[in-house]
Design brief:
By secondary structure, the protein is α/β, with parallel strands linked by helices. It has a 5-stranded parallel β-sheet, with helices on both faces. The chain is about 50% helix and about 5% strand. Helix 5 packs parallel to helix 6.
């Protein structure tokens, strides 16, 4: 039987805690390196945060399953070193109130809830004279590391990316050699692991992309990235999201192999920086004027979009792939998001929330940035008069309909629904709606 109580007994006041979060790996881990380099008796822990888990409606959530499987792998690696991984479940504030150690090390997380939680943990530990150390690991540049000459954050990607590349040097890409200090993990016997059921979840039916970096795909990424029917993307986004691969390792490869792929990594840093400096984007438009748009928010049409039954095959294929697998190709993400916001005039927040529930690689900063880009309400967004034509997008990126046929087998038969809206009418409607909102 597993319980938090057993785990509390293992950690002693002279021990150092390393708290894994979105960095589920031993190699090239900034905070873990600092913990091991400066301390002996480092105890690795992970907390299934009940505050976050209680918000999840699907109790077979793919992401929880992915985290769980990654933790089992991490625990096995630690046990080969004579240590183990303590996996807690509960509210981190309450758990840390009961933990006594010399120090706690971890890596940064800039989502609003995480910032608030970490501030509370730090304050709690300070009262107990326990040091709280945290480090950059999830991105190459964070906070104010890439800013304009006047000290303000960038809000346009191209100048941000130029400054990002100009600032980059070997220091920022250097790996952290954690393996040199593996002897500093505290040695203790294997410990029981909670089951998914113990934390209120069950196993999903998801396929998890392997933790494999295909340099061939990266090499040809600029040629293949827009075609959903082929394996032209790395499928590493979930591994980046949960830190099962190192961003520094990927940036090193990108610099050698493909600048277009490197730019995708920079977009990730950019959106993380935007979320940190402009946390209002979580619930509101980055550009306040766009909060004046009068959305139609037709629930029946939203349901058709969610189910992949809009009568636009490229949109429906994307939504069905998402529902079935937790994955959607990036080009198709743009098409489906644009369709919801521009064709159906449904609030981008509805679509963002749906993606947040379904995406295996869901990341608040990137998901929010992508949706606000599609809605034209975000920083460096597509101008509002740009309305993707699903038929033209299909002709460009799925001309032989291989992707569509895979996910919409009834397409072309009487079983396939008629289009929920006419493209020309929808385009005129959204342009009029946006223009009125922005000119009022």
């Amino acid at each position: 039987m597993w319980s938090n109580e057993q785990l509390f007994e293992i950690i002693k006041p002279e021990d150092t805690i390393f708290w894994f979060r979105r960095d589920l790996r031993l190699d090239d881990n900034a905070g873990l390196y600092r913990a091991l380099h400066g301390n002996s008796k480092v105890v690795p822990i992970f907390i299934f945060d009940s505050v976050i888990l209680n918000e999840l409606e699907d109790k077979n959530d793919r992401r929880v399953d992915f985290i769980y499987q990654s933790l089992l792998q991490l625990k096995s690696q630690l046990e080969e070193l004579g240590s183990s991984l303590l996996i807690f479940y509960g509210d981190p504030i309450k758990l840390y109130d009961r933990l006594h150690a010399k120090a706690v090390y971890t890596n940064h997380d800039f989502e609003p809830y995480a910032i608030k939680r970490d501030d509370q943990v730090k304050a709690l530990l300070m009262k107990k004279n326990i040091a709280f150390h945290h480090f950059k690991d999830h991105v190459i540049f964070e906070k104010d590391e890439v800013i304009k000459d006047d000290g303000k954050p960038y809000t346009i990607f191209t100048p941000y990316s130029k400054k990002w590349k100009a600032k980059l040097n070997k220091f920022f890409l250097k790996s952290y050699p954690t393996e040199k200090y593996f002897n500093n993990f505290k040695k203790f016997k294997k410990v029981n692991t909670p089951s998914l059921q113990d934390i209120g979840f069950g196993k999903s039916d998801a396929y998890f992309p392997p933790r494999v970096i295909s340099q061939a795909i990266i090499q040809n990424y600029h040629k293949t990235r827009d075609y959903p029917a082929i394996k032209g993307t790395t499928r590493l986004s979930v591994h980046l999201r949960f830190g099962t691969v190192s961003i520094r390792k990927l940036a090193q490869i990108a610099l050698k192999k493909n600048e277009v792929w490197l730019n995708e990594l920079i977009w990730r840093d950019f959106y993380a920086m935007i979320l940190f400096h402009f946390p209002h984007v979580v619930n509101k438009a980055f550009k306040p004027a766009y909060d004046q748009i009068r959305w139609r928010n037709n629930e029946k049409e939203f349901e058709k979009w969610c189910d992949g039954k809009t009568g636009y095959p490229i949109v429906d294929a994307g939504m069905r792939e998402l529902n079935a697998t937790g994955f959607m190709h990036n080009r198709v993400r743009m098409i489906t998001a644009s369709f919801l916001v521009k064709h159906l005039l449904i609030d981008w927040r509805w679509g963002e929330a749906y993606f947040a529930r379904q995406l295996l690689d869901y990341d608040l900063a990137s998901n929010n940035g992508g949706w606000q880009w599609a809605a034209s309400s975000g920083c460096d967004a597509a101008p509002y008069f740009r309305v993707f034509n699903p038929e033209l997008q299909t002709d460009k990126f799925d001309a032989d309909h291989k992707y569509i046929k895979q996910w919409v087998p009834e397409w072309g038969t009487p079983k396939y629904p008629a289009p929920v809206v006419d493209h020309k009418i929808a385009r005129e409607r959204v342009l009029e709606t946006y223009k009125k909102a922005l000119n009022d």
